[in-house]
Amino acid sequence: MAEEEKEIKMKICLLGDGGVGKTSLVYRFIQNRFSTDFKSTLGVNLLKHEVAIDHIRVTVQIWDLGGQDKYEGLRKLYLDGSQGALLVFDKTNKKSYENLEKWVRSFRDLRGGKPMLLIGNKLDLKEFIVIDDETAESYSKSHDLDYISTSAKTGEKVETAFTSLIKKIIENNPP
Known about the structure:
The protein is α/β, with parallel strands linked by helices. It contains six helices and six strands, in the order βαββαβααβαβα. Strand 5 (about 115-120), helix 5 and strand 6 (about 145-150) form a beta-alpha-beta unit.
């Protein structure tokens, strides 16, 4: 007899500066597609996706937060109830890496020790990378985060990033 499948719902947020590829990561995960035509996220994009992990059917609400400073006042509302976050920077953009601290602080101030995963995106742009994995891993260790390098364009490790966060959330809140 097959093991009974459990169902859970969760909310995760994507955090990071504008232009780091948060929306591209979400669409690669949900629809396995990539586009160069995404416009800047205005406030927040809300999407839903179902995945099966270890006999658990998980409905994930994905809140893709606009990274521009003008949305900072709304983030408290958007982060409310979030059970985890993907913290994204662009490996080719040093400023997006330097701004990670404000994103970590804003999430932890509101959500405490909820799981967060650091993502270095745009792995495919090898000749333009200015933040290497060693630097990112050092940052992640100093902030008690796991780190994954991804490419929304090629899809490399995108599903791994999302499912890793989902598994961490399930571990912290078993069904």
